[in-house]
């Protein structure tokens, strides 16, 4: 069993909403960087949003003002609220985490050591 487990994916029509959850094991501490990445077949994994240990957030330009990343430290759970979904949001969504100090780029998948198995999001037009 891994350190991260995603849930909440599904199929939705364009304009709809979904909330993804990522339950982290006790090994993943609240000070860790945590984020969401997505991937479609044949393409590299791309960042969606990241939340830093101090609560600061970063978003890909394509999801700004539509998606919100948040974290419940008491439950050790990461969330991604996705609103106004578009067909191009379709993909496998992965939860990722990395321990501080974080010396790399928040958007770079190779900076993250811990990954979940992914949850599929499909948005139809």
* Mean pLDDT across residues: 95
The helix content is under 10%
What is the overall silhouette?
A: globular
Distance, first to last CA: 36 Å
The Cα radius of gyration reads 13 Å
Total strand segments: 11
Helix/strand/pairing class, anyone? mainly beta
Order of helices and strands: EEEEEEEEEEE
Poorly predicted runs: none
How would you characterize the largest beta sheet? 7 strands, mixed
Total helix count?
0
Strand content: over 45%
Can you characterise this structure?
The protein has 125 residues and is mainly beta. It contains no helices and eleven strands. It has strands spanning 4-7, 10-13, 18-24, 33-39, 46-51, 57-59, 67-72, 77-82, 91-98, 114-115, 119-124. Strands 2, 4, 5, 6, 9, 10 and 11 form a seven-stranded mixed beta sheet that branches. β4 (33-39) and β5 form a beta hairpin. The radius of gyration is 13 Å and the shape is globular. It starts with a strand and ends with a strand.
